[in-house]
Amino acid sequence: MADREPVLLVVLIQSKLLSWHVGAINTGGQAIPLLRSELGNLDEYQELEFDEQLSFLRHRIAGVLQRGCDRLYAKHAKAIHFVLIADGHYLGAEEGITPRLAEHFVEWMISPPVTYFLQRADIAPRSDPSESCLPRSLGEIEIVAGEMPETIAEMLRKGLPSLTDQIQHADAWELVVNRSKPMA
Q1: This model's pTM is above 0.85
Q2: For residues 86 and 15, is the Cβ–Cβ distance under 8 A?
């Protein structure tokens, strides 16, 4: 269908909680929550060596992008750009994982293109680790890999505050349960 609404597919990665949310932002800046993981969804990389950590995170996040695209299809929308935003480096990961992961997505997923952001180091994290530490504006993040065309930046600028605010409303997001782990 050529008449699908163009949207950004945004993955918000909570590095300390080892979880993620994926949503969309349309051209008008409207945020659309889609999916969320349970806490600890990304923790399986922690006991692995560098290459295995990188492989695990690549596969998990690629799966998140695929699930997000599946949800967009049902909403008659199509991703025109993937945006990955992490609130910090991956907890307990080998040094260098974040830039290598970011470069992988930018190099291998060219349609739609990818931009990988990391929260700027000078932004103070919230005191309560259960609160979302995800950035709310472009001023709080920096590009690790990829490019950000101005039209895409404008969509992100408009919709990011609303998308991150909706994280506190768990019912707005469909929960994706990791079936390889026992339920807590």
Answers
A1: yes
A2: yes
| Residue 21: alpha-carbon gap to chain centroid | 6
Helix H, strand E, coil C: the string for the chain is CCCCEEEEEEEEEECCCCEEEEEEEECCCCEEEEEEECCCCCHHHCCCCHHHHHHHHHHHHHHHHHHHHHHHHHCCEEEEEEEEEECCCCCCCCCCHHHHHHHHHHHHCCCCCEEEEEECCCCCCCCCCCCCCCCCCHHHEEEEECCCCHHHHHHHHHHHHHHHHHHHCHHHCEEECCCCCCCC
Peptide bond into 112 cis (omega under 30): yes
Instruction: Using the predicted structure, report yes or no on whether residue 130 has a pLDDT greater than 60.
Output: no
Encoded tokens for 41: 């969804």
Contact 6, 80 (CB under 8 A): yes
What are residue 11's phi and psi, to 5 degrees? -105, 120
Higher pLDDT, 110 or 141: 141
Residue 170 phi, psi dihedral angles, 5° rounding: -55, -35
